Amino acid sequence: xxxxxxxxxxxxxxxxxxxxxxxxxxxxxxxxxxxxxxxxxxxxxxxxxxxxxxxxxxxxxxxxxxxxxxxxxxxxxxxxxxxxxxxxxxxxxxxxxxxxxxxxxxxxxxxxxxxxxxxxxxxxxxxxxxxxxxxxxxxxxxxxxxxxxxxxxxxxxxxxxxxxxxxxxxxxxxxxxxxxxxxxxxxxxxxxxxxxxxxxxxxxxxxxxxxxxxxxxxxxxxxxxxxxxxxxxxxxxxxxxxxxxxxxxxxxxxxxxxxxxxxxxxxxxxxxxxxxxxxxxxxxxxxxxxxxxxxxxxxxxxxxxxxxxxxxxxxxxxxxxxxxxxxxxxxxxxxxxxxxxxxxxxxxxxxxxxxxxxxxxxxxxxxxxxxxxxxxxxxxxxxxxxxxxxxxxxxxxxxxxxxxxxxxxxxxxxxxxxxxxxxxxxxxxxxxxxxxxxxxxxxxxxxxxxxxxxxxxxxxxxxxxxxxx
Length: 469
Hints:
The protein is of the alpha/beta class. It folds into 2 domains: about 50-140, uronate isomerase, domain 2, chain A (Orthogonal Bundle), CATH 1.10.2020.10; about 145-465, TIM Barrel, CATH 3.20.20.140. The chain contains 19 helices and 9 strands. The chain has a 4-stranded parallel beta sheet with strand order 4-5-8-9, with helices on one face. Strand 8 (about 345-350), helix 16 and strand 9 form a beta-alpha-beta unit.
């Protein structure tokens, strides 16, 4: 007998919500416009040996939960075997009820592998073996899993110095799913460690064929790489920021700061922020010139645990939500580009839900009638890609802007097993709209609302990014 868990109508609390999801949202393909999938694995059509390799490797969401459950580091990022690591994850899962990981885990087991039972220590060995057998077949290769989930396009996250050879291979082999790069120039702006920064600039210089000895030559190198990315199909940039950069500066100050850091000197905080502001503005101009979309991700406080950061490195599960001031610097940054007539289409994401209404109102300041939804409030991401986080983001957007123009969900994931997050999002979207109908705040008009759901699920993103599918 079914216990009701993940039944066909889970999260769909009203009749109209069920109709909207099953008749309109569920059939839509996926446009995953921001992810961290490794392009090499798509190019090589990689197959995974087991669920640990496909599911646990690199997944700091799961590592955080396992550590919280008392699991030793050797079973997260350490030397334990793949099966031992999976066993520890299976021990953790029953304690994760209420965390989106619990739903995601079982959705992924069902949608990819047809496993309808729950993961626990009692079922771990059987699930590990059965799913491992499937993963080693061509149907469950990297490309096979993308096909299985009806993916139409993904945009990976790539450094300006990357040669994009894996993207070229994917395209030359005629893979029917679009796999496009995204220009992520964070390393060209992060001057905190001069030795690391200068080593990176040497790499960028070699890729661009530009001797980076001045601020002007750095901009020239970035422009060359921007043009190269555009030729490879790139239409988005992305920036990971504590908050927006909008310091006042003179060109002399920028030249002096760059010369200092290129010479190995540590910059004062105000110098570093001015240099970053200048580079962010240059990137915004480049994006506008080529018709790209710029994505600004705000609010992550990174690498909080010094001891484990030194031991394990970044992106291993020791980041959290920050509380940085965003309104004034963001307004100044966007306004600077707008005054020049070079403000590109922009997606703003916040990791701190306290800024939802700030971003929701900031969008309206810079909508200019040129493109529907030119300024976008990005989906709840990272710690906020759960029911409450996504519902609050969409409610703020609806209250303060036009939810119907929203470009929808993304995975922000390194795993090919993460695509059911789109289903999770779509169910939450339909639940939200259904609640408005039940409360008399929206009409019970399936034609109107069904089109809205289809657009948010896929159509808006396809039109907004201008990528032919």
